[in-house]
Amino acid sequence: MYVIGIANAKDRQRAIDQMRAGLIVDPIKNDTASINDNWRDCERMSEAVPQATFDTKLASFLRDLACRTYEGRNILADAVYRNWLSDIEHPTDFSTQLARGLLGMDGQPCVTTVHDEQLRKCLLALVPTAASTSTSPVSRDCNDAW
Q1: DSSP of 72-134, one letter per residue?
Q2: Of 9, 63, 86, 137, which sees the most CB atoms within 10 A?
C-alpha cells in the first residue's frame, strides 16, 4: 500500500504506523516456532507421496476446478492451461492427464467446452496419439500464445 496518495498528514501517519505495527512481532504472541514446525511436518508428509501420485491428484484437482465450475468455466480452463501447461515443451504424464481432462477425453463429463480453437490445438498437442510419441515437442505457437 502506498501512503503518498493520502493527503491528510494525520491519516497518512496513522496508515504508516498501522503498517509498521503489522510488521513487528510481539514476543508474547510470537508463534513462529510453532508455524515453522507445522511447515516442516507438511514438508515431511509431502516427501512420502510419490511424484506420480501427486501429479495424478493435481491433474484431477485442476480438471475438476475447470470442469465442474459453471460460471466462467472457459476462463478457468484457459487459466489452468496458461498456468500449468503453456510452458511445457514435451508432453508428460501430468500434462497429458490434465489436457485429456480439459478436453473431456478422460471418460468423465466435463462441462467445459474449449471454444478457443488455438487452445484446443494446444491441449491436443499434449495428448499423444498412436501417430506421435510423448517426446514430440509441442508447437512453439502454443508456448508463445500465452
Answers
A1: SHHHHHHHHHHHHTTT-SS--HHHHHHHHHHTT-SSS--------HHHHHHHHHTS--TTS-T
A2: 63
Residues with Cβ within 8 Å of residue 46, at least 6 apart in sequence: 54
Could you report the per-residue pLDDT of 101-120, keeping only the tens digit for each? Answer: 888 888 887 765 556 677 77
pLDDT for the residue 146: 47
C-alpha cell at 37: 514446525
Closest CA to 140 of 90, 103, 98, 99: 90
Cell numbers placing 31: 508463534
Nearest Cα to 104, choosing from 57, 58, 68, 142? Answer: 68
Residue type, 38: N
Cα separation, 93 vs 51, whole angstroms: 11
Domain locations in the chain as residue ranges: 9-47, 51-145
Is the pTM value of this prediction over 0.90?
no
